[in-house]
Amino acid sequence: MRMSDHAVKVEPDHTTASSGDKDNVVVTEELVLDTSPAASLSPPVPSCVPSAAGVQGSATPLASKDKARSRSKMGRDDRSTEGKVNTDIGYAISTHVGKHLNRLRGEKVLQIKCAGRVMQGKQETNGNSTHQRPRDRHEPGNKHQRKKKPVTVDTSKAKTSLEALKMSIKQLKWKEFPLGRRAACDIYWHGTSFHDNDHIVSGQVNKFPGMIEMLKKINLSRALRTMHELFPEEYNFYPRSWILPDEYQQFSAQIRGLKDSDAAAHRTFIVKPDSGSQGEGIYLIREASEVRLAAGSQARQAVVQEYVQRPLLIDKLKFDIRLYVLVKALEPLQIYIAKEGLTRFCTEPYQEPNQKNLSHVFMHLTNYSLNVQSDNFVHSDSQSTGSKRTFSSVLYRLASKGVDIKKVWSDVISLVIKTVIALVPELKVHYQADIPPGKPGPTCFQILGFDILLTKNLKPVLLEVNSNPSMRIEHEQEVAPGVFEYVSSPVDEDVKVCVIRDTLRLMDPGLNKHGHPPPAGGGGAAQQGTVITTKAGPPDKAPEEEPGDGLPTLCLKQVYPKYTKQFQYLCLVDRIATLFLRFLGIKGNMRLGPTAFRTFIRCCKLSNSNLPMASVDILYIDITRRWAASTQDSREAGMGLQAFVEAFFQLAGRRSKAALLRDQVASLLEVCEAHLDGPLSALPVAAAVSLEDRRSLSRGRAMAREASKLSPSSSSSSSTTHPPPLCSPAAPRRAVSHDQRLQRSRHGPLRTNLEN
Ligand code: ADP
C-alpha cells in the first residue's frame, strides 16, 4: 500500500451549517489514499435523517470545578429531536433515544433495526486462536439442535462494566455468575486487568496480559515511533512525541530549531503523565523550560507531544472520538471495530492556543471527566445533542456539509489497524510469558478504547488507546438541589451495551470451537518454532455476514484479517518478535539473555569477519544497558523486545546497502527466516536454543568472560540449561521470576476503567 496525496475540496452545505461551523465547513483536505485499504474499507455511512442542532457553547472560565454539580439547561430544547442515524453497509441502526428516558435499568431493550441478514449462527469462519476444551455447545440457528447449554460468564470482577455486562448477558440468554463459580466458566469478565483473577486455567478472559503496560503513554509512543521509523508515511497519524525526562534535551533542541527557522511560529506542546488518565496532570506549554520536571528520582515520566492546534470543530467546540475496538485474538490477529462510537465535546468554545488560554481546560481537553464539571456540560438525551454524542450523529452532521465521511471512516479504520499492528509484537511477548504454550491457561480478547481527534483537514490523529475504556452506562446527576443519583445515560447505553453484547457473541465458545484449528500457545503467543506469517486466516466470511440467533446484526465489523493484504507489509516488527520469542526459550521470561542473543546470531549465521562475536556481545551490552537506564522497569535484566528490535535495526543497517530502513530490515528478516526454516525450526524454541547452547557452551563461557570484562553491569539469562551469565555481577539482578513479575503487574499502578 502506498499513500498518495490528492486534494479534495469538500463543499459544505451552508444552509445546514450552524454559523459557528463556518470555519470548518470549507476544507481542502489532504487525502491520503489510493490503493490503500481505505479504498476498499466499508465504513458505516450515515444517511438522510436530519439531526438536531448541537451545543451552543459559551465561554466559561477555567476552575469551575466547585460548580461541578450545577447543570446547565442549555441545549435542552434539542432533546425532542430523535437522533435517528442510519448507517449503511448492510445495517441500519435507528435508535429511538427518546424512549430511553425514564426507563428502568434492566428493563431496557435496544431498539435496533437491522437491514442486514438475520444472524443464524453458523460457525465462525475466521479461525479462532483459542485452545479451549471442546464443549457441548449449540450450533445457533440449527432448528434440530440439542438443548442449549447457556454460555457461562463470571462477572464477579466486572467492576464498572457490570451494568452493561448484565444487560448483554440477559439479551443473549446466557448465564451470569456474579459471585464467581467453583467450576470453570466459559468467559471471565475482568474490570481492570488479566490478573484480576489469577486462577483461571481455561475459558476466555476479556483482558490480555501486558495490555495495560503497553498502552501507557510512553510505551505506546515508543511502539508507534518504531513503526514510524520503518514506515514514516503510514505512521504519520500520531503526534510527534518525546519521552520525559530522558529526551528532554532533544525536545528542547527541537523547539530551539523550530524557533530559529521560523521565529513567528508559535508551536504548542501538550505534556501528559505516563500513567495518567482523565486528563489528570496534563498541561500545555510553548517553551521547553515550562516542562515541570521534578528532580532526580522524583522525575515523573511523561510524554510531551505536539499539540494539534487546528482540530475540527462543531458548534465552535473541540471534540474527540471514542471508538471501541475488539482485539479478538493475537495469532492470527483478529480486529473488530464498533460501527458506532462516542464523541466527547469540550464545553468552552475553542481558540487556537495563545499565552492567555493555555490553561483553559474546558477549551483544550475533551475528557468527559473534566467537562462534566463545567456549567456548560449538557447530558445528552439524544444521540446528536449534548456534550456526548454518537459518532454517527457527528458524521451525519459532517456529511450534511459535504464532507466525504466514507473517507474519514476508512482513514479511522486504517489508523486502528496500524496501531494494533504496532502493539501486537510486545503483547505476544507478554502473552507467552503469562500463558506459556502447552500450559493450561485461558485465551484472551479485549475491548480497547481508541481516542481520536479529527484535524480541521479531517485527518484522524490518535491521541491515546485505553486498555480499560469506561463501560459505564449511567452518570451521576443532581436530581434535586444537593441530591445526586446515578441515572441512565442513553447515549452510553446504546453504544456500550451493543459493544459488550456483540463481543460476547463473537467469543461464544460454541462458535469458536468449530473455528479453525488453534495455533499452539493459544490466542496470543507466537507458536514456537514457527515463523509467523501475518497472512492470517481462512478465506473469511466475517461473522457479521453470517446468519445468527435472531439478534441484531453485529455492531462490530471485522477489519482484520479482512484487510490483511493491505496491511501485511507493515508487520516487520511482528516478524522480529517471532524471532525474539523463538530465542527467549524460557517460559515466563520476557528478556533475552546474552547467550540466547548469541544463539540467535549464530543460528541466523549473522556473524562473520565484519561482525565478530565480540562485536555481537558489545552490541548486546550496549543496547541492553541503554534500555535498562531508560525504562522504568529495569528489574528484569536482559534484552527486552524493544531493545532487540533496536539491535535488529542496527544489524540490518550493517548488512544491507538499501537506502530505506524497512528494506534493510526486510532483507535481514529474510536471511534469518531462511536459516531458521531449516532443521532447527522443527524443534521447539527452548530445545533449539539449549541444543545450540550446548554446542556452544564452552565457546560461550570463554566469550562470557571476555564480555564481562567489557561490561560489569550486564545481565544474565536465567535458564538453568544455559551457560553461566555473560556478565558476572548480574547474579543478584537475575531476571525476576515469573511470579515476581506477575505480582508487579498485579500490584503496580493500574489504570482503571475511569470515564475519560
Ligand atoms: P488522558 O489519558 O489523561 O485522557 P489523553 O492523551 O487522552 O490523556 O489527553 C487528554 C485530552 O487532551 C484529549 O482527550 C484531547 O482532548 C487532548 N489532547 C491530547 N493530546 C492532544 C494533542 N496532541 N493535541 C491536541 N489535543 C490533545
UniProtKB/TrEMBL annotation:
Presence of the UniProt keyword Nucleotide-binding in the record: yes
Molecular function terms from GO: ATP binding; tubulin binding; tubulin-glutamic acid ligase activity
Basic and acidic residues composition bias: residue spans: 1-24, 64-82
Key words of the record: ATP-binding, Ligase, Nucleotide-binding
Bias-annotated ranges (Low complexity): 36-53, 709-721
Start and end residues of each stretch annotated as Disordered: 1-84, 117-156, 510-548, 700-756
Biological process, per Gene Ontology: microtubule cytoskeleton organization
PANTHER family for this protein: TUBULIN POLYGLUTAMYLASE (PTHR12241), TUBULIN POLYGLUTAMYLASE TTLL11 (PTHR12241:SF154)
Protein name: Tubulin tyrosine ligase-like family, member 11
Naturally occurring in which organism (per UniProt): Gadus morhua
